[in-house]
Amino acid sequence: MPYFYFDLVIDEEFKSQGGMILEDTQIAFERAESLASELSAVRPELRSRGCAVRVTDCENRELYRTPIDPIPLWIKARRPAEESSLPGTPKHR
Q1: Contact, 65 vs 51, CB < 8 A?
Q2: Is there a domain that residue 92 lies in?
Q3: Domain assignment of residue 93, yes or no
Q4: Which of 27, 31, 55, 81 makes an SS bond possible with 64, Cβ 3.0 to 4.6 Å?
């Protein structure tokens, strides 16, 4: 099973939030979204500043990034085909 690292991204700075062994990348992406939601709640000063949580692999390659700001439900509800057509959206399916 692969090891994933999670960073809080503030401007150009990456602050480690730890790492863990997970079954696959999709679970790591879900963990990143949960961490972003938790950080938004406990650190409201991070909102509206473009902060994000990123996921990297053991070779420090960025696999995924999700914003700290809550994602509106209408965007989350998009079908996978629509998501993959958005510019800058990681294609992780």
Answers
A1: no
A2: no
A3: no
A4: 55
